[in-house]
Specification:
The chain has about 500 residues and is an alpha/beta fold.
Length: about 500
């Protein structure tokens, strides 16, 4: 996979741009998160998305009931078994969200330069001059001249389906606004966002609590990773503290694009992704190919945006409306995967490695030193893949942190544990959670082969890993493979040259 890698500083042959991309088992090192919904919840579509490169399925709990999501989850399990592809599960809680309530679901036309009243009286009917909302304290939170944005679920950014308002008057609990652009709102719910204003609402809604209960049915809650979604100025201001506590970061660019001036969004993306990269926590970007919700191809700007996110160091791309209610969910996953793969070919790994090593500093921890050495060795000998034995997944994540140009096959070896009532094997959670880490491709091993061994008992499970790589097409005869494992108290990095 690394033979065609270039640096952006090197001249790129124009003829090479015309060469068709070669299909592979791993479409890209960058991971793709697909949101499952009305247009993508049946077994065939989910199977298609998995084959196209989706490695994590996102369930959005800001809408839909438990029964709907449970049925989708069962379909996902069937698709995973039929395709033989691991898939992680991401539950996205809505959190405190202002919404306009349209019980009739009739389209509402709003004309520019006219007035509309936002009222907390949800019993009133939504119309072009009156919009009921689900919050009584809006009039106390905003002031004259403040900006309010109203749009469909998963902001389209399209001026015909979303509207900008300017607060012109406060009347009791009602807020009178001037409409800044003409738009038609359709559906039962639209999200309302007040730019740069703190809205005092409960952190956990009833739906969030339902999502937590749903999550508890999937496994132990203490094994769950928490990703923080940064979507406003508050998240930006407290980014460093949030990053220390969270297991990963999601940059919600749709919401951030409202709080921040458009010319500032890319600066925050680059700064946030860099900070995540340096401490080895996944950075996930949203809102990349909105136009593919209704179209088979992305715009040129969107395609370039995806590539730039990859070059910035993003671990994963979230597809929201594109797969949830889009017309071409499978094609969208495939297209984004192809763009990511092309961008990865010109990712400057050498510069990235030096920056990461400099940030970590010296002396390195034992595990960090082994991980960075494994990556450097793999690049020097032009290895086709790195195989890492792990129980917790930490060693494999550290290797992936240095962004090797070849895939890292993480062999997760389960551990037997007990809660005094029953015995269980760990490992499945650790394997699936690494599916959102760039360049990391997990496989579950036989629990009879420990990750930390005093002799070479890992040889049989290594053979399984190499066979998996051969079947995937990433390992070929005479390839070199770097293996990272523990033998007793010693960590070992060895280089294998494969025979026929």
């Amino acid at each position: 996979m690394n033979s065609n890698h270039l640096l952006l500083e090197e001249p790129i042959r124009m003829a090479s741009i015309l060469e068709p991309s070669k299909p592979s088992f791993f479409p890209a090192m960058t991971k793709i998160v697909g949101t499952l919904g009305p247009k993508s919840r049946n077994v065939d579509i989910i199977s298609g998305c998995l084959k196209a490169g989706m490695s994590v399925a996102r369930f959005d709990f800001s809408w839909g009931d438990d029964e709907f999501h449970q049925e989708t989850l069962e379909n996902l399990k069937i698709a995973v078994k039929s395709t033989k592809k691991l898939c992680g599960i991401m539950l996205d809680t809505g959190g405190p969200e202002l919404q306009v309530v349209n019980k009739t679901e009739h389209p509402i036309s709003l004309e520019a330069d006219t007035k509309v009243i936002l009222t907390p009286n949800e019993d009133k009917q939504a119309m072009s001059t009156l919009l009921p909302i689900n919050f009584r304290g809006l009039s106390k939170a905003v002031s004259k001249g403040d900006t309010i944005f109203i749009g469909q679920y998963l902001f389209t950014g399209n001026e015909t389906t979303s509207v900008w308002l300017e607060v012109s008057e406060l009347s009791g609990e009602d807020v009178v606004c001037l409409i800044k652009n003409s738009a038609t709102l359709s559906g039962s719910l639209y999200t309302l966002h007040v730019s740069r204003i703190h809205i005092d609402m409960p952190t956990l809604t009833d739906k969030d609590k339902a999502a937590r209960a749903f999550l508890s049915t999937l496994g132990e809650l203490n094994q769950t990773q928490i990703f923080a979604k940064i979507e406003n100025i508050e998240g930006l201001t407290h980014f460093d503290e949030i990053l220390q506590e969270a297991d990963g970061i999601i940059l919600s660019r749709g919401n951030l694009g409202i709080d921040l001036p458009p010319e500032k969004v890319f600066l925050f993306q680059k700064a946030a992704v860099y900070k995540c990269n340096m401490i080895g926590k996944p950075a996930v970007v949203t809102r990349v190919v909105d136009s593919m919700t209704d179209n088979l191809r992305p715009t040129r700007a969107e395609a370039t945006d995806v590539a730039n996110a990859v070059l910035d160091g993003t671990d994963a791309i979230i597809l929201g409306a594109e797969t949830l209610r889009g017309l071409y969910p499978v094609e969208t996953v495939s297209t984004v995967g192809k763009i990511c793969a092309e961008a990865e070919k010109v990712f400057n790994q050498d510069l990235y490695f030096k920056k990461t090593a400099k940030y970590v500093g010296e002396p390195m921890t034992h595990l960090e030193s082994i991980a960075s050495s494994a990556v450097r060795a793999a690049i020097k000998v032009k290895a086709s893949t790195i195989v890492c034995f792990t129980s917790s997944g930490r060693a494999a994540r550290l290797i992936a942190k240095y962004r090797p140009t070849m895939p890292v096959i993480s062999v997760v070896i389960p551990r037997l544990k007990t809660n005094q009532l029953r015995w269980t094997f760990s490992g499945a959670f650790e394997a699936r959670q690494s599916l959102i880490v760039r360049g990391l491709f997990p496989m579950l091993a036989d629990p009879r082969h420990p990750a930390e061994s005093k002799n070479a008992t890992n040889e049989s499970v290594l053979k399984v890993a190499l066979d998996h790589g051969k079947a995937s097409g990433v390992i070929k005869p005479h390839d070199r493979v770097v293996v990272c494992q523990k033998l007793g108290d010693a960590s070992v990095v060895k280089i294998l040259e494969l025979e026929d």
